[in-house]
Write a structure and sequence with these properties.
The protein has 13 helices and 36 strands. The protein has about 750 residues and is an alpha+beta fold. The chain has three domains: about 325 residues, Beta-galactosidase, Chain A, domain 5 (Distorted Sandwich), CATH 2.70.98; about 300 residues, TIM Barrel; about 100 residues, Sandwich (Immunoglobulin-like), CATH 2.60.40. It binds alpha-D-galactopyranose. The site of alpha-D-galactopyranose (GLA) has 11 residues, from loops.
Length: about 750
C-alpha cells in the first residue's frame, strides 16, 4: 500500500523548474490515493471520480489496464497480460497498450521514447525495474533489457479533479553518449470504441477554433514546429465517446505543459485501439545525453469526465486555478489566485505614440471609470517609434519620457491604480544597440540568412549570457520602477534555429534549453519580485499552455478584439483554459480589423465574460459612454469571482453560424450565478430562445437582477433553482436585432 499523495507534488517532482514556492500552502491538505497490488502487480491511482490503473505484465513491460470512472475500492482491475500476435504483421508489442513504449522489438505505433546508441544500436525495450513512493506521488523506474538507459515515470493524481500528471526522466548510465530522437511525457490509452476528437487550431487574430472530427484509423498529429506553443494549434485535446455531448457522456482530455515545439499524436491502430502520445516534438529533435546526464520531459495533464465536454472543461478550470496558476506573495495562502484587476491598456488608442502627457491624460480618464490597473504597451523604450527598431534596448526613451517613468507611475498610483508595462524580452530588432553589439546572440546558422519576421530576430535564450542579460534587464527594470505587472510579449516564431557555440551534434538541444531558461527567468523574477504579476502574450494567443501558466497569471487570447469575433475565440478558449486568465478588452467601434460597428454595451458584455479590460481610446468617449462603462465595471467587480472562477456552462454555442450564444457561471457555494446572452445576426426578427440554466441548487430561491437588458415582462424576479433550470429564463420580447447583449445575476435569497 502506498501512502497518501499530497497536492503540491503535482507540480514539483517531475520538473524542478516548476516553482513550488509559488504554490499555496493550502494545497498540502489535498490527498488522493495510489496503491500497488503485489499479487496482480497492478498500480492503481484513485481520486475524485477517476481511476487510473496500469501494471507489470508477464514480459516485464508496463501496461495500462484501465482509465475511466472511479472503480469500487474492492474491485480488481484486469491483470496486465500482453496482447497476442493477431497476425505475423501485428506484433504483440504493437498490440499491447504500453504505458511508455521504447522504439524497439516489434513496436509499430508511436513510441514514447526513441534513442540511438553510440554504437549504432537503435533498439530500446523498456521493462519494469522498481518503484518508489515519493513525498509527492509515485515513481516507476523502467530499464532497457540490456543497456543502462533508465526511464523514471512520474505519476500524480489530483484529489479534487482526478486529473493525472505524467512525465518521464530519461537517464543515460551507459559509458558513451546516447541521442534521444523522440521523448514523450506519456502515452495514454482509451478503451476500444468510437470517438470524436476535439482540438483547438487557429491563426493570428483567429485563435482557439474548436475542431470536432471522428477518430479514424491512422494518426492525427497536432503540433508546433515553431519553437513555441503557436497560434496554429494548442496543446490540448479532448476525446468524446460516441454518446457524449456538451453535458453528458464520457470524455478523456489532456493538456501538455510545454511552451516549445510540441507534438500530440492521436492514433487508432489496425485493431481499433486508440492511443495518445504527447511530448517534445520529434521533428528536428536530437538531444545528446552524456553519461550520467538526465532529460526531463514536460508534464502531460490528463483527466476524465462523465459529464461531457462541459464537465471536462470545468475540471480543467478548477485544476488550473488550484494547481497550476502561480500566486503572488500577497495571495500565497489562498486556494485560488485573486481575480484579475480590471485594466486599461493604451495599445489600440496610441500604438507606439506613447508620451508622459498622453499616458497621464489616459490614466486620469481610466481612473474615473473604476479601472484598477493602468498598463503602458509598446513604444516606451530605446528608439522605438515603429516596429522597425528598438527591441533589445530596454532603457526608457528620453524624448517620450524625459524624466523617466516615475512621473507617470506616481500619477497612476495617486489615481488609485497600479502600473503595468509591456516588454518583449526574447526579441531583438537588427536596428538596435543590442544587436549591433551582439549579433551572435540570435538564433542563426553562421553564414546563412537570418530570416526576419516583424523586422525582428529571436535571441538565443538557451545561451547562458543571453539568459543573464534578459534576467538582468528585467530585474533592473523592476528594481528601479514600481511596476506591478508585466505584459510579456513574443511576436514571432523561430527560423534558422542554430546554436553554434555547441558542437554540431548537440545544437538541437536549443529546443529544450531555450524553454527551460525562459521558465527559469520567469521563476527567478517572481522570486525576486514576489508581488509582480505577468501576462503571457504572443501576438495574441500564441503562447497559452499549462507550462507558461505556472509562471504567468493571465494571457492575451487574441489581438482580435472585435466583440463578436471574440465570442467564438472565448468559447474555444474555455474548452482548455479558465476564464480567470482570459483577458478581454473593450476597444473602439467600428473595429479596426473587420469594420464591424457594435454598441458599447455589447462590447462591454462580450469582454465581461472573461477578465475585463478597456483598450479603447477613452479620450474620445462621450460622457454617456464613460457613464455606461463605469456602471458596468462596477457591476462586473461585484460578480467577477463568480464569472472567472465559477463553474462555466456553455448554454448556447456561438459556433457554426449560430444566431445566438449564451454562457452561465455558478460559484462553488451555488449562491450566485451570472448569465450572458448575445444575439449575433438574426433573420426574420427571431427572438431569443428560453435559457434553461444549469448548476443551481434546485431547492434554493434565487433573485434575478439584470446587469444589462431585461427579462420577459412576465418573468418572476425570484424563483427556485428548479424553476430557472426547468422552466428557464425568458428574455424580454424587445431583445431582438443584430449584435445585442444582455446579462443577469442570480443571488440566492
Ligand atoms: C503584439 C500584442 C499587442 C501589442 C503589440 C505591440 O501584437 O499582441 O497586444 O502589445 O504586440 O507591439
Amino acid at each position: 500500500m502506498l501512502k497518501t499523495f499530497t497536492g503540491p507534488a503535482l507540480l514539483t517532482a517531475a520538473a524542478p523548474l516548476l516553482a513550488a514556492a509559488l504554490l499555496p500552502a493550502s494545497l498540502a491538505a489535498q490527498s488522493a490515493m495510489a496503491h500497488f497490488d503485489a499479487s496482480s502487480k497492478v498500480f492503481r491511482l484513485d481520486a475524485a471520480n477517476t481511476t487510473y490503473a496500469f501494471g507489470i505484465n508477464s514480459r516485464g513491460e508496463l501496461q495500462q489496464v484501465y482509465w475511466g470512472g472511479r472503480l469500487g475500492a474492492s474491485d480488481t482491475p484486469p491483470t496486465p497480460t500482453p496482447r497476442r500476435e493477431w497476425a505475423s504483421f501485428d506484433s504483440t508489442y504493437t498490440n499491447t497498450p504500453q504505458e511508455y513504449g521504447g522504439w524497439g522489438a516489434g513496436l509499430f505505433n508511436e513510441p514514447a521514447l526513441k534513442v540511438t546508441f553510440a554504437d549504432g544500436n537503435r533498439d530500446l525495450v523498456l521493462h519494469y525495474q522498481s518503484h518508489t513512493e515519493t513525498p509527492s506521488g509515485l515513481d516507476v523506474v523502467l530499464k532497457d533489457i540490456s543497456r543502462n538507459v533508465l526511464v523514471t515515470l512520474h505519476y500524480f493524481i489530483d484529489e479534487h479533479t482526478g486529473i493525472l500528471g505524467r512525465s518521464a526522466t530519461i537517464e543515460n548510465r551507459e559509458s558513451a553518449p546516447i541521442t534521444i530522437e523522440q521523448a514523450a511525457a506519456a502515452t495514454l490509452v482509451l478503451p476500444a470504441g468510437n470517438y470524436t476528437l476535439n482540438y483547438l487550431t487557429g491563426r493570428w487574430a483567429g485563435e482557439f477554433t474548436l475542431n470536432q472530427e471522428p477518430i479514424r484509423h491512422g494518426a492525427r498529429v497536432l503540433e508546433s514546429r515553431r519553437g513555441t506553443t503557436g497560434h496554429q494549434a494548442n496543446p490540448w485535446f479532448a476525446i468524446q465517446s460516441a454518446a457524449s455531448d456538451e453535458d453528458h457522456g464520457e470524455v478523456w482530455f489532456g493538456a501538455l505543459a510545454w511552451s516549445g515545439s510540441w507534438r500530440t499524436t492521436i492514433e487508432q491502430d489496425q485493431l481499433d485501439a486508440v492511443r495518445v502520445t504527447s511530448g517534445y516534438n520529434p521533428f528536428d529533435f536530437g538531444y545528446v545525453l552524456h553519461p550520467n546526464e538526465k532529460l526531463e520531459t514536460p508534464v502531460l495533464y490528463a483527466g476524465y469526465s462523465a459529464h461531457g465536454l462541459g464537465g471536462a472543461s470545468r475540471l480543467l478550470h478548477a485544476f488550473e486555478l488550484r494547481n497550476v496558476l502561480p500566486r503572488t506573495q500577497k495571495t500565497a495562502s489562498s486556494p485560488t489566485p485573486r481575480p484579475r484587476p480590471v485594466i486599461y491598456n493604451s495599445w489600440e488608442a496610441t500604438e507606439f505614440h506613447v508620451s508622459e502627457a498622453g499616458q497621464i491624460a489616459l490614466a486620469e480618464k481610466a481612473a474615473a471609470l473604476g479601472i484598477d490597473r493602468f498598463v503602458m504597451d509598446d513604444g516606451w523604450f530605446g528608439q522605438r517609434k515603429t516596429d522597425n527598431a528598438g527591441l533589445g534596448d530596454w532603457y526608457v526613451n528620453q524624448e517620450k519620457f524625459p524624466h523617466g517613468l516615475k512621473p507617470l507611475i506616481d500619477r497612476v498610483h495617486a489615481l488609485g491604480m497600479d502600473f503595468g508595462l509591456w516588454v518583449e524580452p526574447e526579441m531583438v530588432n537588427p536596428d538596435s544597440d543590442l544587436y549591433r553589439k551582439h549579433p551572435d546572440w540570435v538564433l542563426n546558422f553562421p553564414g546563412r540568412p537570418r530570416t526576419e519576421q516583424r523586422q525582428q530576430l529571436v535571441l538565443n535564450l538557451a545561451r547562458p549570457d543571453v539568459r543573464d542579460y534578459v534576467l538582468g534587464f528585467l530585474d533592473k527594470l523592476l528594481n528601479e520602477n514600481d511596476i506591478a505587472f508585466l505584459k510579456w510579449d513574443y511576436n514571432r516564431n523561430w527560423a534558422e534555429p542554430g546554436w553554434d557555440q555547441l558542437p554540431a551534434a548537440e545544437q538541437k538541444k536549443v529546443y529544450v534549453a531555450f524553454i527551460q531558461n525562459l521558465y527559469s527567468i520567469l521563476a527567478e523574477l517572481r522570486k525576486r519580485h514576489p508581488n509582480v504579476e505577468i501576462e503571457s502574450c504572443s501576438g495574441g494567443g500564441g503562447r497559452v499552455d499549462l507550462g507558461i501558466l505556472r509562471y504567468t497569471d493571465e494571457v492575451w487570447p487574441s489581438d482580435n478584439t472585435d466583440p463578436f469575433d471574440r465570442l467564438t475565440i472565448q468559447d474555444g478558449f474555455t474548452y482548455a483554459y479558465t476564464p480567470q486568465i482570459m483577458m478581454a478588452w473593450v476597444t473602439d467601434s467600428p473595429h479596426w480589423l473587420n469594420k464591424r460597428t457594435t454598441s458599447l454595451a455589447y462590447r462591454m458584455l462580450s469582454s465581461m465574460q472573461g477578465s475585463l479590460g478597456i483598450g479603447a481610446n477613452i479620450d474620445k468617449w462621450t460622457p454617456d459612454d464613460a457613464a455606461l462603462a463605469k456602471r458596468l465595471i462596477a457591476a462586473y467587480h461585484e460578480v467577477q469571482p463568480t464569472i472567472v472562477q465559477g463553474d462555466l456552462y456553455r448554454l448556447i454555442s456561438p459556433r457554426n453560424g449560430s444566431e445566438f450564444s449564451a454562457t452561465q457561471t455558478v460559484n462553488a457555494a451555488k449562491s450566485q450565478s451570472v448569465v450572458f446572452a448575445f444575439i449575433h445576426s438574426t433573420q426574420e426578427g427571431r427572438g431569443f430562445p428560453l435559457l434553461k440554466l444549469k448548476g443551481l441548487d434546485p431547492d434554493a430561491q434565487y433573485a434575478l437582477t439584470p446587469i444589462e437588458g431585461k427579462a420577459a415582462a412576465d418573468s418572476p424576479t425570484t424563483a427556485s433553482g428548479a424553476f430557472w433550470m426547468n422552466h428557464g429564463l425568458a428574455l424580454h420580447d424587445d431583445f431582438r436585432g443584430d449584435f445585442q447583449a444582455a446579462a443577469f445575476r442570480l443571488d440566492r435569497k
